[in-house]
């Protein structure tokens, strides 16, 4: 029994094998079983025979040719020369071929408009195909052919597809609208009609694309949404994720343009509807949807609603590194305005050593903003840890953050200073000196405590340990600037006791210093001499420094020294210190008194400037690339401002403010008016005595009429109620219009 | 809000496949590929590349753009964006596209994508409209439009059969877009109806140098594999739903129902999908408080999850060299830690890395010799690309102790290692949350499905020293 069974199997196998073998010998290309389609990507394909293959009668040959063409496209080769042959296959019965042909056509139809026109008949026929996939594809190709001549054909096709049974095809129709409008904007009237039909679509699948078309073609005609606003809000949950994003942005724009600004006591019912419909979408797995909802909550609700955006945004931080990077940018923008929202969640922003460099810096900035009295301690400890990071940028940011901590929270100053001074021992803590300088200066200006002087004396004692030239220069400057002492000390009178020693140390290694440090040493010497011109040792050291500097290789150092020496001419210093050359004597000029020299050297120092550059682009709103790249990007989208006044009057004002879209005069011509009436049955044709923006008025007033009735009636009865209110609204509207007509 | 297209690069930075960019100049995609490759060359640490690269306009007529990119196996997916939209849109789309690639090709790699470039092209064309709007992104619907590659279909096409007739059939049952539910295929039939839920949880934590946990959180996913016939309406309820919060759901889940009684009601897509994502909240009382009052702050520090191991680090710095000693002790009472990987970045110019691994507790007698030397003492390697030392322990039994001793020197002066260890591990058949499925009810169909629930966990912990 089993032998027989085995026999049949082996027989079948051998038969299949023979069949395969035949095929193999026939088409050597089909060896690609083992190698897959990558064969097509081999560089030796010069495109020979493709023409012949495309003309052959075998589907397999054609498919092979099409794959080769697509492979050539992916290699960046221009294969538009085969256009004529490819177009012929557009009506192929094999869907596989047809799809590849479509892909090819979409790419090259622009370059070969004349040949593309040849295929239009086929596409028009495809629009009636029984398969929705074919219908949608045909429309996509048709709208992708950028030949203005066929504009009206495309409009017809879009109109046909907009009424299609399949929501997928209607979606394709909506997406074709902006393309058609770009091609030839004279068709905008017809397109508006189609959009208004599509806006009534009950299927959640296509509505997102309709929103896209709306934004692209008629972004200012928000009045067309009056009838749809509530329905769209309720639909939101069922729309696909990409559609939710476009729809949320559209509804947000509508709310900001048409509804009253909400405040804590009073929220417009329609805004409330938007918020409650959008809130469940915080639970979307799509980060972009969550952000779109965040935008709605942040820009269309009173501050008491804002805490609701916090948890969903924090959740996004854990989805992927890239999303974390972007969301941190947004969180930073939010936290700058309302740090209290994020203060309890600071643990989410702790830096990990394997974070992206940019993420680390953003987190440090965020921690700094959200730090509160209770959390300062632990956040400061974090910053001190981050100063050990292998990345110099991060170290710098961390040190700066420690400085900021000390500034913003005076209680923590001693701790910060200890930390910064410890960092000085760290080989890469050089920027700590700069931060310290900043701290000292800001403290000297607004406090009288002896603390800053302690820091300087501390620094002065470590001056030999500080290697970084800029930091050294900075310390030396600090020592000079704050070396004046009021009370007589153990050392030289008028000078704090640690200052001369710094000069001695510096003078010792003067020759090996960089110019930037040398300049400061010369200045230090001058300052000390001005404070106490009588001390002999000081004069000797000063003279030594000046004579070294006068013959320095760097001309800046030589110049500075010459200037300083002349400045000190009036101090009565010994000849050895300020050796006067003969030229000076003959030239004459003003000799400054000691007090004058002192003013020049010590006063008029630049006020403390905030060194942390605030690089956030102003006016960038949540969910824009500008906020992430910190560079201005081209933007069509903008967030409209709230209207200050209540619904009814403000509503009219908005429409008045907005200029009617350009093609409106065409819109008003009797012929198009008629079709508009036919399709949308909104405007009675008799009620057009006034201005070009007339239809908008009608819409608005009807919106009000519906406001009352819609609340009591369900969605299904909306049709009849429109009929009822039509007469009244048209009358009212003409009154309104004349009132506002200038 | 729209994206300009997708470009798929191999790991040498060359484009494999790219979408049309029909409304853009020809140089546009090249500009982005170049900007990306420059960023890679400039990156200071392997893998540390700014995810949103600013690409300046190359002439005044163009506007500046940005290049969002994501790495996936050995390929990179770039997504140029030129308007001032939300980059999250680009990243969400890339993620969706990567999911689709996984669905079609298993693990996508440069080689498989090249082998199936015609399929990838069709996928690009079907998922992204030329205006930059996503079209069909649900894998169930896509499978009807673009046939997944399989050996069988290749064999048949060689043998001359036309498998695509199924698509050509059009509006008949099973054709594209015939299903009333966008995410579910119509007319499915299985002989045995099964649905599997994998609770996959990931622990993320930061431990400071004193061994105190600064922050820890557990994020979970419910990965579902559904093989159910017809259009089943499932209702999944949990015995302890209060342990999870911050949920995110697949579009098929009815959000109102979850809000009402914390059970998941859904018509599932066919095949693999992620039903839900959640965060585990150890102290349930705090959760309920926050649930009723969204303004109540989270006291995260009170909610720390006990970590499954303990690390003692001893690092000594000399003039230009470092010697280190790490001791890892498993604290799991009964579960084994699998695939423990400890990594430390050594800083630029690290060289001459020496090390030795050993067992602190003298080794487990039962293990010795049976699994080879690696599982006895663990092993270490030096990853020169990342300049990191990598210590692997394939299986750490409960309360076992592991040691790594070593040293290295630095070519360019003072060594600057990252002051933390990155530790990753897996735990099989274990969840931190102990979230338990109560029951699965299926309505709308007559069969009673087989339901399988499993759990597994992983973790990634930063242990500072």
UniProtKB/TrEMBL annotation, chain A:
Keywords, alphabetical: Membrane, Protein transport, Transport
Gene3D superfamilies with a match to the protein in the record: Leucine-rich Repeat Variant
Keyword DNA-binding found: no
GO cellular component: endomembrane system; membrane coat
Biased composition (Basic and acidic residues): 650-659
Pfam families with a match to the protein in the record: Adaptin_N (PF01602)
Bias (Low complexity): 684-693
Bias type Acidic residues, positions: 706-726
Domain named Clathrin/coatomer adaptor adaptin-like N-terminal: residues: 50-568
Subcellular localization, as worded in the UniProt entry: Endomembrane system
Domain of life: Eukaryota
Any single GO BP term: intracellular protein transport
Predominant location category: membrane
Transmembrane helix among keywords: no
Region of interest (Disordered), ranges: 650-742
Family recorded in the similarity comment: Belongs to the adaptor complexes large subunit family.
Protein name, entry field: AP complex subunit beta
Protein source organism: Mycena indigotica
UniProtKB/TrEMBL annotation, chain B:
A Pfam family per the record: Adap_comp_sub
PROSITE patterns: CLAT_ADAPTOR_M_1, MHD
Cellular compartments annotated: Endomembrane system
Signal peptide extent: none
Protein's GO biological process: intracellular protein transport; vesicle-mediated transport
Record region (Disordered): 353-375
Domain MHD: 192-465
Record protein name field: MHD domain-containing protein
Primary localization class, coarse: membrane
GO cellular component terms given for this protein: clathrin adaptor complex; endomembrane system
Keyword annotations from UniProtKB, A to Z: Membrane, Protein transport, Transport
InterPro entries named in the record: Adaptor_comp_med_subunit, AP2_Mu_C_sf, Clathrin_mu, Clathrin_mu_CS, Longin-like_dom_sf, MHD
Family the UniProt entry places it in: Belongs to the adaptor complexes medium subunit family.
Coiled-coil positions: none
Superkingdom of origin: Eukaryota
């Amino acid at each position: 029994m089993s032998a027989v069974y085995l026999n049949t199997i082996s027989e079948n196998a051998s038969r299949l094998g023979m069949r395969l073998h035949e095929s193999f010998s026939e088409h050597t290309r089909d060896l690609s079983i083992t190698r897959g389609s990558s064969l097509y990507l081999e560089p030796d394909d010069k495109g020979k025979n493709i023409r012949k293959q495309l003309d052959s009668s075998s589907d397999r040959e054609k498919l092979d040719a099409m794959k080769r063409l697509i492979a050539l496209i992916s290699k960046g080769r221009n294969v538009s020369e085969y256009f004529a042959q490819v177009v012929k296959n557009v009506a192929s019965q094999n869907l596989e071929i047809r799809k590849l042909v479509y892909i090819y056509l979409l790419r090259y139809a622009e370059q070969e408009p004349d040949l593309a026109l040849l295929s239009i008949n086929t596409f028009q026929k495809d629009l009636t195909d029984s398969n929705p996939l074919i219908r949608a594809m045909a429309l996509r190709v048709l709208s992708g052919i950028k030949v203005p001549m066929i504009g009206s054909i495309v409009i017809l096709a879009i109109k046909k597809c907009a009424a299609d049974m399949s929501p997928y095809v209607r979606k394709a129709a909506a997406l074709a609208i902006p393309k058609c409008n770009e091609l030839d904007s004279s068709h905008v009237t017809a397109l508006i009609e189609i959009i208004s039909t599509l806006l009534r679509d009950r299927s959640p699948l296509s509505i997102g694309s309709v929103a896209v078309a709306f934004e692209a073609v008629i972004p200012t005609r928000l009045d067309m949404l009056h009838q749809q606003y509530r329905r769209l809000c309720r639909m939101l949950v069922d729309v696909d994720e990409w559609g939710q994003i476009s729809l949320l942005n559209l509804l947000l724009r509508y709310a900001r343009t048409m509804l009253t600004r909400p405040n804590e006591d009073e929220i417009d019912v329609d805004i409330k509807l938007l918020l409650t419909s959008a809130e469940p979408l915080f639970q979307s797995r799509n980060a972009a949807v969550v952000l779109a909802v965040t935008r709605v909550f942040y820009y269309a609700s009173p501050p008491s609603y804002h805490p609701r955006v916090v948890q969903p945004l924090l959740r996004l931080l854990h989805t992927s590194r890239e999303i974390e990077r972007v969301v941190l940018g947004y969180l930073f923008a939010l936290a700058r305005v309302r740090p209290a929202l994020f203060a309890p969640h600071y643990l989410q922003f702790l830096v990990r050593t394997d974070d992206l460099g940019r993420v680390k810096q953003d987190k440090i900035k965020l921690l700094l903003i959200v730090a509160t009295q209770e959390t300062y301690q632990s956040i400061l400890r974090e910053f001190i840890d981050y100063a050990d990071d292998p990345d110099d940028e991060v170290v710098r940011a961390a040190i700066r953050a420690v400085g900021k901590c000390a500034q913003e929270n005076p209680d923590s100053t001693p701790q910060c200073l200890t930390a910064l001074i410890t960092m000085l021992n760290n080989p890469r803590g050089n920027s700590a000196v700069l931060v310290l300088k900043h701290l000292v200066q800001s403290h000297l200006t607004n406090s009288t405590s002896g603390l800053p002087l302690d820091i300087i004396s501390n620094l002065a004692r470590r001056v030999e340990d500080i290697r970084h030239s800029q930091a050294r220069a900075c310390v030396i400057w600090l020592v000079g600037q704050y070396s004046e002492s009021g009370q007589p000390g153990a050392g030289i009178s008028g000078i704090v006791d640690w200052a001369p020693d710094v000069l001695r140390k510096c003078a010792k290694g003067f020759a090996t210093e960089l110019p930037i440090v040398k300049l400061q040493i010369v200045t230090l010497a001058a300052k000390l001499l001005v404070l106490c011109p009588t001390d002999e040792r000081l004069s000797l050291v000063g003279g030594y420094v000046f004579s070294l500097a006068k013959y320095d290789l760097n001309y800046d150092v030589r110049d500075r020294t010459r200037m300083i020496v002349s400045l000190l001419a009036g101090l009565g210093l010994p000849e050895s210190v300020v050796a006067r050359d003969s030229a000076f004597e003959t030239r004459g000029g003003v000799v400054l008194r000691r007090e004058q020299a002192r003013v020049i050297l010590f006063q008029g120092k630049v006020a403390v400037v905030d060194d942390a550059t605030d690089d956030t682009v102003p006016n960038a709103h949540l969910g824009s690339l500008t906020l992430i790249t910190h560079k201005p990007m081209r933007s069509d989208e903008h967030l409209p401002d709230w209207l200050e006044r209540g619904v009814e009057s403000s509503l009219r004002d908005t429409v008045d403010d907005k200029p009617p879209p350009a093609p409106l005069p065409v819109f008003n011509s009797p012929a198009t008016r008629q079709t508009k009436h036919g399709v949308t049955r909104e405007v009675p044709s008799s009620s057009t005595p006034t201005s070009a923006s007339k239809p908008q008025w009608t819409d608005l007033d009807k919106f009000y009429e519906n406001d009352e009735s819609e609340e009591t009636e369900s969605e299904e009865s909306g049709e009849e109620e429109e009929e009822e209110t039509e007469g009244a609204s048209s009358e009212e509207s003409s009154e309104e219009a004349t009132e506002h007509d200038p | 809000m729209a994206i300009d297209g997708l470009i798929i690069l191999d790991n040498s930075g060359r484009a494999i496949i790219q979408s049309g960019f029909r409304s853009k100049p020809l140089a546009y995609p090249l500009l982005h590929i170049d900007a990306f490759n420059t960023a890679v060359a400039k990156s200071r640490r392997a893998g540390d590349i700014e995810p949103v690269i600013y690409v300046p306009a190359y002439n005044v007529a163009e506007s500046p753009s940005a290049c969002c990119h994501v790495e996936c196996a050995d390929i990179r997916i770039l997504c140029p964006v030129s308007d001032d939209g939300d980059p999250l849109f680009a990243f969400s789309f890339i993620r969706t596209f990567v999911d689709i690639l996984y669905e079609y090709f298993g693990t996508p790699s440069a080689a498989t994508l090249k082998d199936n470039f015609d399929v990838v092209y069709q996928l690009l064309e079907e998922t992204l409209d030329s205006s930059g709007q996503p079209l069909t992104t649900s894998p169930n619907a896509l499978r009807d439009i673009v046939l997944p590659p399989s050996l069988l279909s290749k064999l048949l096409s060689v043998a001359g059969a036309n498998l695509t007739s199924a698509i050509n059939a059009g509006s008949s049952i099973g054709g594209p877009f015939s299903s009333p539910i966008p995410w579910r295929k119509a007319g499915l039939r299985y002989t045995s109806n099964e649905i599997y839920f994998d609770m996959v949880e990931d622990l993320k934590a930061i431990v400071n140098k004193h061994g105190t946990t600064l922050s820890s959180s557990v994020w979970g996913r419910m990965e579902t594999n559904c093989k159910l016939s017809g259009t089943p309406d499932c209702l999944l309820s949990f015995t302890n739903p209060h342990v999870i919060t911050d949920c995110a759901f697949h579009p098929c889940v009815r959000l109102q129902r979850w809000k009402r009684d914390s059970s998941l009601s859904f018509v599932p897509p066919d095949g693999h999908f992620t039903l839900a994502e959640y965060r585990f909240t150890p102290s349930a009382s705090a959760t309920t408080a926050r649930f009723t009052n969204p303004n109540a702050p989270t006291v995260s520090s009170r909610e720390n999850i006990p970590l499954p191991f303990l690390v003692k680090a001893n690092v000594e710095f000399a003039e230009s060299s470092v010697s280190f000693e790490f001791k890892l002790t498993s604290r799991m009472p009964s579960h084994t830690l699998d695939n423990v990987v400890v990594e430390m970045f050594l800083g630029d110019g690290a060289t001459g890395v020496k090390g030795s691994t050993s067992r602190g507790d003298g080794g487990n007698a039962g293990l010795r010799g049976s699994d080879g030397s690696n599982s006895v003492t663990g092993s270490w390697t030096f990853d020169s690309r990342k300049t990191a030392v990598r210590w692997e322990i394939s299986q750490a039994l409960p309360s076992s102790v592991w040691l790594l001793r070593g040293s290295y020197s630095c070519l360019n002066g003072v060594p600057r290692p990252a002051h933390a260890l990155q530790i990753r591990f897996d735990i099989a058949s274990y969840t931190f949350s102990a979230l338990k499925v109560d029951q699965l009810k299926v309505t709308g169909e007559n069969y009673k499905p087989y339901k399988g629930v499993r759990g597994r966990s992983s973790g990634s912990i930063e242990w500072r020293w």
